[in-house]
Amino acid sequence: MYRVEEEARVQSMDDQARLHHHQAYSTVPMNTLFAYLTTLLSERRVEPANGLGKAAIYILKRKESLTRLLNVPGVPLDSNAVERALKCAVVIRKNSLFYHNEVSAYRAGTLMTLAGSCVAVGRDPISCMTALVENRNAVATAPEDWLPWRLPAAQLETLGCWTRRHSGA
Q1: Does the pLDDT at position 167 exceed 60?
Q2: Which residue, 56, 77, 90, 138, is the most exposed by fewest CB within 10 angstroms?
Q3: How far apart are CA 148 and CA 125, in angstroms?
């Protein structure tokens, strides 16, 4: 499945072409997996209570969700991006327990959220935050113009902000 997904990515397939590619190359392996797991359980080659049995039951119960990428254009192969985003939230929550007071926890959470938003849209967090500080009057006047996804990289460079390209990183 991941090999097929990588082929689609390398070939820069649009959602519809990617769907047809997965239908052509992923349907048989997925059906084979489901048939194998069903056989394992029905012929009692594996106990439903052990690790493999639980995994087989888990997969078979979610067959419809796991095969959605064979029917709906644009469906991701896995939920890794969502899980990474959730990990950030968990880390922020855990770290906030160690701040001196609610105000510092709130400020740190705001900064971490801003940094995460920058990363999510492909912007360097340091450059964006530097731009916000250096232009605080403009930010106070029109904050919506200073959201990370609205700041083009060229604007960050024009503002004289540090960027990875300038730092050699």
Answers
A1: no
A2: 90
A3: 9
DSSP classification of residue 49: T
pTM of the shown model = 0.58
Q: How far apart are CA 21 and CA 26, in angstroms?
A: 8
- Cβ neighbours of residue 140 under 8 Å, at least 6 residues apart? none
- Distance between CA atoms of residues 99 and 101, nearest Å: 6
User: How many Å apart are CA 99 and CA 12, to the nearest integer?
Assistant: 45
| Separation CA 51–CA 70 (nearest Å) | 28
Tell me the angle at which helices 125-134 and 102-120 cross, rounded to the nearest 10 degrees. 120
Q: What is the pLDDT of residues 84-127, one digit of tens each?
A: 877 877 887 788 788 888 888 888 888 888 888 888 888 888 88
CA atoms within 13 A on the CB side of 96: 18
Question: CA 40, CA 53: separation in Å to the nearest integer?
Answer: 8
| Structural contact between residues 69 and 76, judged by C-beta atoms closer than 8 angstroms | yes
